[in-house]
Amino acid sequence: MSTLVLLLITGVGLGALYFLVASGLSLIYGLMGVLNFAHGAFLTLGAFVAWEFSRRFGEGSWSMFLLSLLIGAIVGGVFAALTEVVLIRPLYNRHIEQVLVTVGLSLAAVAIFEGVWGTDPQYPAGPAWLSGTTGILGAQIPNDRFVTIIIALLVLAGIVLFLKKTRYGMIIRAGVENRSMVTALGIDVRKAFTLVFTLGGAAAGLGGVLASHYFGYVSPALGGSLLIFAFIVTVIGGLGSLAGAAIASVVVGVLQQLANFYWGVGDFVVIVLLAVVLLSKPTGLMGKMA
């Protein structure tokens, strides 16, 4: 029983990490129709800069850990905003060029990260409590999983409230439905779309810092490895569906943990799940592609 509890809770924690990355992908595609293959670079840069800051000014305290989360989110958001303004904005409605540009940016970013920080992994240090465990029904759950789950829930609630309750959220949703009409009303939709990219990048940067503590290291390849599963989660949940991404993240995370523990084939089982969903319901669980 304790083993099952451990696998379920850690699976939800892994799913929460996937969601932080996938939420930005889903938000950007759902509201702007952009498939951003450079999203992993936002994550990696946020994690590296947060680690660098913590290393230089003192690791191990809660204040530094929380500050590193904020720095990761800011760095990811700024990088994403610059990407949208410089590279994506001239290519709206030109999807092939968008894919080529974002793939190229992701490859270039990895090369730059390797040049600056090297190819070897770096090991961040967080508060001692994060490295400990908490007993639940006989299972010792790593504490960092609880932090990741809580932050993922806060990010989900924050994005939903922003889109539904704020002026810019309403402008973004209206611009997606009819960009020409909103522009005719004198509203600059471009600024709203840049904000969407910024939010997605901030979520990725936040996820990067948490991932560095979750896995115990940060490396130039961290964003790329997580991006693969984030895309899988986004497709399974339904491209553009934030709720679908949240549900799919938990399903994928738990299934991967169970399959890895009992059979050692977690990644394979996730790919099988992706194939089953695409064959049975090509629009994904929430059907936002329709």
Question: If you had to describe this structure to a student in words, what would you say it looks like?
Answer:
Its main location: membrane. By secondary structure, this protein is mainly α. It has one domain (about 1-155, about 190-280). About 75% of the residues lie in helices and about 5% in strands. The chain has 11 helices and 2 strands; from the N terminus they run ααααββααααααα. It has helices at about 1-30, 40-55, 60-90, 95-115, 145-165, 165-175, 180-185, 190-215, 220-235, 240-260, 265-280, and strands at about 135, 140. The chain has a two-stranded antiparallel sheet with strand order 1-2. α1 (about 1-30) runs antiparallel to α8, α2 (about 40-55) runs parallel beside α4 (about 95-115) and α2 crosses α9 (about 220-235). It starts with a helix and ends in a 10-residue tail after the last helix.
Features:
single chain; 290 residues; mainly alpha; two-stranded antiparallel sheet; globular
